[in-house]
Amino acid sequence: MLRAILNFFKSKFSLRDKREALGIHGTFKLTGRDKLGNIVFVKNYKNLITNAGFDWVADIMGLNAQPSDITHMAIGDGVAGDATATTLTSEIDRQLAVYAHTPGTKTMTFTTTFADVVDATEYGCLNAAAAGTLVNIAGFAALTVDSLQIVVTFTLS
Predict the structure, then answer these.
(1) Cα separation of 17 and 23, whole Å?
(2) Domains of the chain: which residue ranges?
C-alpha cells in the first residue's frame, strides 16, 4: 500500500516537474531573381548566431515590435567568421531589414532584398546603418544575381 502511494505521488510530481527547454537556432533563405523578376534559385541554410546575437535575444525577450537592435542586413564577399565575429569579413552592401513576427509562434523573420549582387559569399544581421553589432553570420557559395532576397528566421524552441 505504501509503495502504491509513493508511486502515485512520484508520477504526479514528475508530471508537474516537466519543463520545456529553451533553445534558439537560425536559418536563412536566399532567393535570386533575374532582371525580369523570374526566380533563378532558392537556397536554404543554417546560420551561426554570434555571441553578441545571444546577448541580443536575451535583451529583447518579450517585445512585440521590431527590436531597435536589429535594423539592417549586410552582404559581403569574404569568408564568414565564427561566433566571435563582430563584422562581416568584407562587407559590400547594407540595407534595411523588415521585421515580422506572428503572435503565438516561436519564430521571427528579417527580410532584405539586395540589387545587382556580384560574388556575395556571406551575410549578417546588424543593429545599425554603419558599424554596429553583428547578431548572426553565415557563408555560402559565391552568388551573382540581379536581385537577392534574404529571409532570416530566428526560432526559439
Answers:
(1) 19
(2) 20-156
**What is the rounded CA–CA span in Å between residue 134 and residue 6?**
53
**What is the number of residues in the chain?**
157
Q: What is the mean pLDDT of residues 75-92?
A: 92
Query: How many angstroms separate the Cα of 92 from the Cα of each of 83, 89, 116?
Result: 21, 10, 11
Q: Which three cell numbers stand for residue 44?
A: 536554404
Question: DSSP state, 77?
Answer: S
| pTM exceeds cut of 0.85 | no
- For 42, phi and psi rounded to 5 degrees? -135, 125
Tell me the one-letter amino acid at 15: L
Residue written as cell 542586413?
73
Dist CA 21 CA 143 (whole Å): 37
Q: For residue 19, name the pLDDT band (cuts at 50, 70, 90).
A: low
Separation CA 49–CA 31 (nearest Å) = 21
